[in-house]
């Protein structure tokens, strides 16, 4: 008996013949073939069918740690019905903290937070509560957590944040990522005193920190924080970061802090006008009427205006003062400036001098 020779499979240029009549009659024969890989459409259809069949979702199957997986799940979340969204949340809630710090998963989390209800959001928050600190310090997790905090509306949510972050707010405020979480909590929560209470006695320390001052600016409207800032006014006004805390207090409290501010800087305004950071605060203070009148009385002398005209930062202060001073002062102010300009010579400062005289001349 002859041995049966099996055909040798090789790449052939000859087109395969299709003998199936049903395939030939199909408008798109390729759709009739069995595919061993998922296309985007088939992936989405498989998810939809899983919902329709009311089968529970497998978290491992839909764990969006890839770019395409995250994108598909975001699209699915956006078009899901409430009951379908509940299935997704039930599936991924045990791993929500890992998703929030994942390169692609954090985008899916942000989409999920914007689409879920308050009760669903609380469920997710409870699932991750033991890892809230880790997520807050993570460069990707912080963005997802800020989105979650921004939609806080339940007392239970506020309670979880208070219990998990308690005693850590000062340290968090100085961290590149966690400081933004603290700022978001200060802006969003109805009861934020549990955060402010931890800052009391440490306001000066936070105000001179690059990130801490951003947190302090968010709570300058609290009287206790404001009092601590003004208590260190003369030091903070000259600090590269602390000066922003003083500016925020002046902008928010205006006339209410005028007496304390004037008491701190009185007799030193000229020296402060020569400094890069302090001069910015003096310009901000000029916007407050009662403080402005005290600054004018201290600076409007021939000798002091001459010194200010010779200094770049001093010219900035004079320019702001010339814009905002009352008409009753403008005539005397202009005569002092004109007298001083006869004694100074600087090509670099000439444009500023021109602005000052124009502001005083054009009533």
Describe this structure in words.
This protein is mostly helical and 363 residues long. The chain has a domain at 57-198: Leucine-rich Repeat Variant (Alpha Horseshoe), CATH 1.25.10. It is built from 26 helices and no strands.
Short description:
Pfam families: PUF. The protein has 26 helices and no strands. With 363 residues, it is mainly α.
Q: Structural class from helices and strands?
A: mainly alpha
Gap from first CA to last CA:
119 Å
Assembly context of the chains: single chain
The main β sheet shows up as: none
Question: Architecture of the domain at 57-198 in CATH?
Answer: Alpha Horseshoe
In CATH terms, what is the fold-level topology of the domain at 57-198?
Answer: Leucine-rich Repeat Variant
CATH homologous superfamily label of the domain at 57-198? Leucine-rich Repeat Variant
Low-confidence region ranges: 1-60
Q: Helix segment count?
A: 26
Q: What overall geometry do the principal axes of the alpha carbons give?
A: elongated
Bin the strand percentage: under 5%
The helicity comes to 55-70%
Average residue-wise pLDDT: 86
Elements, N to C (H/E): HHHHHHHHHHHHHHHHHHHHHHHHHH
Q: How many strand elements?
A: 0
CATH class of the domain at 57-198: Mainly Alpha
Rg, Cα atoms, Å: 33 Å
């Amino acid at each position: 008996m002859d041995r049966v020779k099996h055909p040798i499979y090789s790449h052939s240029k000859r087109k395969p013949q299709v003998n199936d009549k049903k395939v030939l009659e199909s408008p798109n024969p390729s759709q009739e073939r069995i595919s061993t890989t998922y296309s985007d459409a088939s992936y989405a259809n498989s998810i939809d069918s899983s919902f329709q069949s009311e089968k529970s979702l497998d978290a491992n199957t839909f764990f969006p740690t890839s770019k395409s997986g995250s994108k598909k799940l975001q699209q699915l979340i956006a078009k899901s019905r409430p009951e379908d969204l509940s299935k997704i949340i039930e599936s991924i809630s045990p791993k929500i903290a890992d998703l929030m710090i994942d390169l692609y998963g954090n985008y899916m989390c942000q989409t999920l937070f914007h689409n879920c209800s308050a009760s669903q959001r609380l469920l997710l928050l409870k699932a991750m509560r033991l890892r809230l600190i880790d997520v807050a310090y993570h460069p990707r997790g912080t963005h997802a957590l800020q989105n979650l905090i921004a939609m806080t509306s339940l007392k239970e949510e506020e309670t979880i944040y208070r219990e998990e972050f308690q005693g850590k707010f000062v340290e968090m405020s100085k961290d590149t990522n966690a400081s933004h979480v603290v700022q978001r909590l200060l802006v969003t929560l109805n009861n934020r005193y549990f955060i402010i209470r931890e800052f009391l006695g440490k306001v000066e320390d936070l105000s001179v920190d690059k990130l801490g001052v951003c947190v302090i600016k968010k709570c300058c409207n609290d009287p206790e924080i404001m009092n601590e800032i003004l208590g260190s006014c003369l030091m903070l006004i000259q600090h590269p970061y602390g000066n922003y805390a003083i500016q925020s207090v002046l902008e928010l409290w205006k006339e209410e802090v005028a007496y304390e501010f004037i008491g701190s800087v009185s007799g030193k305004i000229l020296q402060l006008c020569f400094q890069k950071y302090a001069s910015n605060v003096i310009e901000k203070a000029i916007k407050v009427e009662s403080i402005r009148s005290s600054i004018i009385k201290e600076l409007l002398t021939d000798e002091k205006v001459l010194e200010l005209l010779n200094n770049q930062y001093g010219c900035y202060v004079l320019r702001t003062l010339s814009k905002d001073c009352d008409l009753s002062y403008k005539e005397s102010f202009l005569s002092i400036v004109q007298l001083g300009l006869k004694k100074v010579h600087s090509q670099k400062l000439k444009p500023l001098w021109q602005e000052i005289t124009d502001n005083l001349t054009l009533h």
